[in-house]
Amino acid sequence: MTNTTTTNTAGTAGSTATRTVLVLGGTGKTGRRVADRLRRHDDLTVRIGSRRAEPSFDWTEPAGWAAALAGCDAVYLSYQPDLAVPGSVGDITEFCRQAKLAGVRRIVLLSGRGEPEARACEQVVEQSGIEHTILRCSWFMQNFSEDYLLDGVLAGEVVLPATEVPEPFVDADDIADVAVAALLEDRHKNQLYELTGPRSITFAEAVRETTRATGRKINYITVPLDDYLAQLATYGVPDEVGQLLGYLFGTVLDGRNAEPVDGVRQALGREATSFADFAGRTAGTGVWDEVAR
Ligand SMILES: NC(=O)c1ccc[n+]([C@@H]2O[C@H](COP(=O)([O-])OP(=O)(O)OC[C@H]3O[C@@H](n4cnc5c(N)ncnc54)[C@H](OP(=O)(O)O)[C@@H]3O)[C@@H](O)[C@H]2O)c1
């Protein structure tokens, strides 16, 4: 287990009184990017919150949260596995209680669009008495490069439940830019930003963009939702993950989130990153180099 608290010596730009930040999920898709950006600031201590961190933070072990929170004045709050799962509201309520006791002044909550359960968690944070910023996000582009769609991309065949509903995928780097601004700048206090990409595209179009960026053919195959979930189970995907994906594809992906919005511009004064730009940049990292021919 590594020591996951670091203090930095690089240049600071425009930070406020925030000095110690707990980054929950700090080795994940958004948290890792948030932590990397925070480490560039002088006089800022970054503490990773995850099961493998020291001190360890586990959402299933509330008794251990105080150790991770001790001495922190701001928290990047990304929940596991998803704010939509049963029990999330209770966990967020208890977390906010402990954060307040620990003297945390500011929470930046990573949330999801179109999920009533996530909205209930946002309300808990909004009513916690702690300064907050809510980042209500669409599906992450990095699901194709760092999460459950990566294996399909590498196999040259992305299999998903049939849907023509477009989604304004958002870049995790844009989310991290907004999160860091919200952690360090007072003007984002008590704001809710809906973060999406600039344009909605279907999963088929996203796979085509990935093909274009990699220069290798990646097929997009659709199956009925029930068949998809049955197939996940045969691959040993845990039940709760299958249920979550079933809920996301069967309920949330009904068009309610199809409209892109301008939260990135509101927060940062610049446009959100397009899927094509994400795909081009990501192909350059080599993560998709092993796509089957
Ligand atoms: N993916 C999307 O398209 C999307 C869209 C909107 C919102 N969201 C929300 O984003 C959140 C996930 O954020 P992310 O995608 O940035 O993270 P992620 O990539 O799923 O990262 C996982 C991180 O969480 C830690 N972790 C896993 N289980 C944990 C546990 N039981 N207790 C404490 N830490 C745990 C991991 O470290 P260890 O293994 O060391 O614990 C790792 O740091 C979810 O709440 C999801 O609802 C996702």
Task: Write out key terms for the chains shown.
293 residues; seven-stranded mixed β-sheet; alpha/beta; binds NADP nicotinamide-adenine-dinucleotide phosphate; Rossmann fold; two-stranded parallel sheet; 9 strands
**Could you report the average pLDDT, rounded to the nearest whole number?**
93
Provide the CATH architecture of the domain at 5-140 and 171-197 and 259-272: 3-Layer(aba) Sandwich
* C-alpha Rg (nearest Å): 19 Å
Count of strand segments: 9
- Percent in helix: 25-40%
SSE ordering: EEHEHEHEHEHHEHEHEHHHH
Q: Write down the overall geometry.
A: globular
Let me know the largest β-sheet.
Answer: 7 strands, mixed
CATH level 1 name of the domain at 5-140 and 171-197 and 259-272: Alpha Beta
- Look up the CATH topology of the domain at 5-140 and 171-197 and 259-272: Rossmann fold
Q: Which strand order do you get reading across the main beta sheet?
A: 1-3-2-4-5-6-8
Helical segment count: 12
Ligands, ions, cofactors = NADP nicotinamide-adenine-dinucleotide phosphate
Strand-residue proportion: 15-25%
Structural class comes to alpha/beta
Low-confidence stretches: 9-16
The CATH superfamily of the domain at 5-140 and 171-197 and 259-272 appears as NAD(P)-binding Rossmann-like Domain
Query: How far apart are the first and last residues' alpha carbons, in Å?
Result: 38 Å
